[in-house]
Amino acid sequence: MPKKPPLLPYQIRFGQNVAALRRKVALSQEKVAELIGVSGRYYQSIEAGRYYPSLGKLLLLQIALKCSWSDFFEGCVAVKADG
Question: Do the domain assignments include residue 62?
Answer without folding.
Answer: yes
